[in-house]
Amino acid sequence: MGETTVLLTTIIVIGLALTLDLLVGEPPNAAHPVAWLGQLIAPLDREWATSERGQRLVGFAIALVVPLVPAVVAGGLVLATSAVSPVVSGAVAGLVLFVTTSLRSLLELTEAVVSATECDDLETARTEIRGLVGRDTSTLSAAEIRSGAVESAGENLADGLVATLLPFTLLAPFSLPAAAAAAAWIKGVNTLDSMLGYPSKPHGTGSAYLDDLVMWLPARVTAIAIALAGADPRAVFRAREWARDPPSPNSGWPMATLACVLSVRLTKPGVYDLNTGAELPTGADGERAIIVVGRAAVVAALLAVVLAAVLTALAGSLEVIAR
C-alpha cells in the first residue's frame, strides 16, 4: 500500500469517527461498548481480600487484565474484517474510534448546565452537571456550578477525545488493527479508573496509577490545543502556576490552560483554585468555554492529521530501507 493511500486511509478513518460523533453523539447505553465494559467492571468492585495490601495486589491485576479485553476485541474485529475488504476494515476501525471518543455529548451537556445557570434554574443545573462532575453541588452557587462545567469541558476533552485519538494516529499508518486496539485499551483504562480509581477503594489503586500514566501526554497535548484554539499560545506557560494544584497529575493542565485562555477563575471548593486573580465564570464565559473547547477539538484533529502525515512518510522510508 502506497504512502498516499495509507495517509488517506488514516484521514478517512479519523474523519469517519469524528463525523459520526458530530452527527450521532453518544450511542444509547444498550448499544454502547463502553457501557458493556462498565457492566464487566462492576462485579469487580468488591472486597477481594481481608487486607488492604491484598486488595491493592488484586487491583493491579485487574488494571493489567481488564483493558486488554476491549483491546483484543477491537483489534481482532479490524484484523478479521481486513480479510474481507480494506474498506470494511477501515469502517470498523472508524467505528472503534467513534465509540471510544466523546465530544458532542460533552459540549451539549456543558451547554445545558451553562444555560440553566443563566436562567437561574439551579435545580436543573445541579441535575445536569452530575453527568460532568462527581462533587457535591447542593450548596454551590451558579458561578461555582459553571466553574465545574467549564473545568469538566477542558478535562474531558483530554479523556474523551485526545486520549484515544493520539494513540490511534500514532499506530494507524503502520497497522489499523493495532491502532483500534490501542484506542480501545486507553478507553478501557479510563473507564476502569472512573469506576474504581478512588482513594476509598484500595483495589482501584492500580487503575488510578495506570490512568495517570497513560493520560500524561494527552493532557498536555490538550492544553496546547486549548491554548491554540483560544489564540493564546502563552496560556500554557501561565497555567503552570496552577496546573499541579488538582490532586490528579494531569487534569490540571487542560483546566488551568482553559482558565487562563478565558481569564476566569476555576475552583473546586476545598480542593483547588485555578487562576486565582480572576473572577468565577459568567454565563458568557461559559459560552466562550464551549466554543474554545470545540475549536480545540478541531485543532487536535488537525494535529492528528499532521502527525499521521509525518508517520506515514516515516513508515514509507523504513519500508524502503528494509528492501
From TrEMBL:
Gene Ontology cellular-component terms listed: plasma membrane
UniProt-recorded Gene Ontology molecular function terms: ABC-type vitamin B12 transporter activity; threonine-phosphate decarboxylase activity
Entry superkingdom: Archaea
One Pfam family matching this protein: CobD_Cbib
Signal peptide positions (record): none
Keyword Coiled coil: no
Keywords in alphabetical order: Cell membrane, Cobalamin biosynthesis, Membrane, Transmembrane, Transmembrane helix
Transmembrane segments: 6-24, 57-81, 87-107, 161-186, 296-318
Membrane disposition: Multi-pass membrane protein
Claim: NADP is one of the keywords in the record: no
Family under the similarity heading: Belongs to the CobD/CbiB family.
Function according to Swiss-Prot or TrEMBL: Converts cobyric acid to cobinamide by the addition of aminopropanol on the F carboxylic group.
Name of protein: Probable cobalamin biosynthesis protein CobD
